[in-house]
Amino acid sequence: MDTTICPWCHSEIVWDPEFGPEESCPHCGNELNGYRTLNIDLNEDEQEQYEAETRSPETASASENNTNNSIASRATTLLDEAELFHQPNLSSLKTIEKYGDENFKMVDYEENVEQLLDTQEEIPQCPHCQEYMLLAGTQEHGASGFVPNQSAGKELAFLKAPFKVNVYVCPSCFHVHQSLGEEERLRMIDHLTRHQDNK
């Protein structure tokens, strides 16, 4: 096994030589193939201005300040146009932010979400935006809509219909998530434990 150190988060990443090195860090998600360089071309006037400033460090006049501002604004525009720095941040994943106008009282919304979270026994995090999810209810899956996996044999089909799942909804991005209900979890553990004992 070979290792790589992420230049961004300094985590040690172990990778299998058979598959080759990782392209991105599994911890922070940044690329591991080096830092990126962004080259900005200057026109002739800007190049002369830059060379003059580096040769003689004098106090910049008002016209020089305007030139510097135009260079900075061009650099900012180029950075914005380059898609190097556009990674989804959590605020772009939170759909609720677009409803925060005069039609909804977002403070009341947040207070009610907190009250509902306080009553839940289990509070999973949204896999999409990492906010806490609300239990919306349960959903029953019947025999007609579910076929258990029987690739390892009929006796190893650990989840049999009918069964119930808890349905969670993220109050921030409205992502829906399901997990087995308590009874089904116990049934699954019991079934797999008994199957192991029979070996």
What report would you give on this structure?
The protein has 199 residues and is α+β, with helices and mostly antiparallel strands. The chain has 2 domains: 44-81, no CATH class; 95-197, no CATH class. It is 33% helix and 14% strand. It is built from 5 helices and 5 strands. The chain has a 3-stranded antiparallel beta sheet with strand order 3-4-5. It has a two-stranded antiparallel ribbon with strand order 1-2. The protein starts with a strand and ends with a helix. Residues 58-68 have a biased composition (Low complexity).
What distinguishing features does this structure have?
199 residues; alpha+beta; two-stranded antiparallel ribbon; 33% helix
Q: Give the termini separation.
A: 34 Å
> What is the string of SSEs from the N terminus onward?
EEHHHHEEEH
Secondary-structure content class: alpha+beta
Number of strands: 5
Mean pLDDT across every amino acid position = 75
Query: What oligomeric assembly is this protein in?
Result: single chain
Taken from the alpha-carbon principal axes, the silhouette is: flat
Low-pLDDT segments, ≥5 res: 84-92
The fraction of residues in strands falls at 5-15%
Largest sheet: 3 strands, antiparallel
| Helical coverage, percent range | 25-40%
Biased composition (Low complexity): 58-68
Region (Disordered): 46-68
Q: Can you describe this structure in just a few lines?
A:
This protein is of the alpha+beta class.
How would you summarize the topology of this molecule?
Blueprint: E1 2-5, E2 12-15, H1 44-55, H2 62-81, H3 90-93, H4 106-119, E3 134-141, E4 163-169, E5 176-180, H5 182-197
Antiparallel strand pairs: 1-2, 3-4, 4-5
Biased composition (Low complexity): 58-68
Region (Disordered): 46-68
